[in-house]
Every structure is written in C-alpha cells, then in structure tokens.
Amino acid sequence: MAKRWGSFRRWLLLIVVAQILLTPSLASLGDRLPDFRECKEVRAQLRTFLEQEAERNCQVCIDENCSGGKYALPFQLRLMLWTCPQNCDYVCQHIITHKRVSRDPPMLEPVVQYHGKWPFYRFIGMQEPFSVLFSLMNFMAHKWGQEKLQASVPASYPLRKWYVAFGYFGYASWIFSMLFHTRDFNVTEKLDYFAAGASVFYGLYYTPIRVFRLEQGTPVKQSLLRMWTLVCGCLFAAHVSYLTFWRWDYGYNMAANVVAGVVQNLLWSGFSILSYRRLQKTWTAWPGLIVAWIVLAMSLELLDFPPLWGMIDAHSLWHLGTVGPTVWWYNFLVKDAQQDMAGARLKQ
C-alpha cells in the first residue's frame, strides 16, 4: 500500500511540475489601448537606441514621462527580479491610468486592467503589497493556531494528526500566495493556485472524517476511510490533470474550489446544528457562524472593483476577511477535541 501511495505521489508531482511549465495568455482592455501600446513602443525604440551601451544588463528604461532617458533599476526591483521591459510596462500602466483618471470630462471606466490585473502601486518591488500583507497575516493565524492546538490537544488524540495536517496545508497555501502576489510569474501563479486548491480539497477530505468519525478503528469505518482517501486523491489528481493537459481554465478552477468548499461548509453547518442541540453550548455553534463569515468574505471576490488608493482591491480584502475565521476555527478545534476527550473519559 505504501509503495503504491509513493508511486501515486510521484505521478501527482510530475503533473504539477508539467503544469507549472505552461504559460497562459491573458488579454485585458488596457492591453489594447492605443496610448498604452504607443507608450510601450517608445520604450522599445529607446531600448534599441541604447542597446549597445546597456542592453546586456537590461537596465535601460524610460523615465516617468516616457520622454526618454536611462537609469539602472533600483536594487529592490532587481532583488524582486524586475527586468527593464517589465518595469517599463509598469510605468506605462500608471502613466496611462493617471491620464485617464485626470481626464475632463471624466471617463466612465477610467481604471482598466492590464494583462488580467489591476494597475497596483508596488512597494519595494512587491506587485500587490496588501495581498502579500494579508496573506502573511493568514500564515501567522495558522502558526498561532497550530501552536495552540499542539499545546492543548495531546498527541494521543486520534484526530490530532488530521488537524495538524490542516495547518500544514494552510502554511503552503499562504506561503505561495505571498510569493504570487509579490511577483506574478507563471511558476508562482501555478504554485498559488495548486496550493490553494490542495488546501480546499484537504478541507473536503478531513471534514467527513470528523463529522462521521471515520478515524475510529472499526473495520467498516477503516474501509470507508481508505476509500474516501482514494476518492479525494483521485479528485485532486483529476483536477490538476484537467488544468495541466486539457485547458488552464480560471472559471473551472474557481467552480471546482467553490463546490468543494460548499460541500464541507454544509457538513460543518449541519454538524454545528446537531452539536448545539445535543450539548447546548455556545461554542458548538461556531462552525455555522464561521461558515457564514467565510461566505460573506468570499462574496468580495464577486466585487472586482479597481484598487482603492491603487493598492487595496476586492481580492486583497478577501484575504483579510479569512484571518479572523482561521483563528476562530482553531479555537473551535481545540474546544471540540477537549469536549470529545472529556466525553470519552466519562464513558470509561
């Protein structure tokens, strides 16, 4: 069994690596603006004119007004792997955005997307600084929760390993989220999407284990647990395979994660209602309340508005909205485990 599982993991890793090597093409309204294209053409002419002098290091670029000139990219930009063409593209985005916002009479849609993203103001080379910050806050919420969980729940508790694994998936998800929002490369995008998907699918996996107590050692439940593990592993492998070998589809990826999230949210909501009726304790209602919070925060993803002050958009606010529920969720897991262990002692 261990040998077959090892082979399955190697194939899954191969699929993920293959997908990372694929590059999707994105086109936005901003990409097609004549002013934006002209700005980039000026940049291209300057690079041609000065290429003998500095093209080798790719440190030639236009100034803030696209009027010509050269300078070495600041250290923080080179540290974040910015290149001359990418920096010029960034400068042109903000030049055109400023012109459109300042126009009189005002335009109906002054701020538009470029390459599938809003024109954010970067900070020390980070493309979406507030998404990075809020992702870090989520990572720290998992770190705090894991420390509390491992300090409060003994290693002998059967469900502890599933809860610890939940934290590791959370770590990976938010680390890759920070990387992606720091610098949007093909590889960081794939790592972010697949890590987030793995975290959601793991939530779908461990939720029935707790709700239906599949970790208990009866032969029937052990068989169900093995089947459920295989089903979830195959579902995630199929998900990654579709995106890898068939089509990189953002709509499908979103739908798959939403479906997996809705199923586990319904299970936890039902579990919350039944637990509250049985125990009449306030904390048993927490899962249902946390689910409601997550649903409200997730609705921000539907409000894809231009970034406030050029830095805070709906997606970053969605990341901010998941910090509180994460802390709350670990408190629930600890409370639930302690109640479970106390009930087991009473039965003895």
Could you explain how this protein is built, in words?
The protein has 348 residues and is mainly alpha-helical. Helix content is 69%, strand content 0%. It is built from twelve helices and no strands. It has helices spanning 2-20, 34-54, 75-79, 84-102, 129-152, 160-182, 186-211, 219-246, 250-279, 286-298, 314-321, 323-347. Helix 6 runs antiparallel to helix 7 (186-211). The two termini are 34 Å apart. Mean pLDDT is 82; it is low at 1-5, 11-26 and 43-70.
* Number of alpha- plus pi-helical segments: 12
- Helical fraction equals 55-70%
Give a quick account of the main beta sheet: strands, pairing sense, barrel closure: none
- Global morphology: elongated
- The overall pLDDT, averaged over residues, is 82
Unreliable stretches covering 5 or more consecutive residues: 1-5, 11-26, 43-70
Structural class: mainly alpha
Measure the end-to-end span: 34 Å
Number of beta strands: 0
- The secondary-structure element order is HHHHHHHHHHHH
Please give the radius of gyration in angstroms.
Answer: 24 Å
Share of β-strand residues: under 5%
Summary tags:
single chain, 348 residues
Strand-helix topology:
Blueprint lengths: L1 H19 L13 H21 L20 H5 L4 H19 L26 H24 L7 H23 L3 H26 L7 H28 L3 H30 L6 H13 L15 H8 L1 H25 L1
Helix pairs in contact: 1-8, 2-4, 5-6, 5-11, 5-12, 6-7, 7-8, 7-9, 9-10, 10-11, 10-12
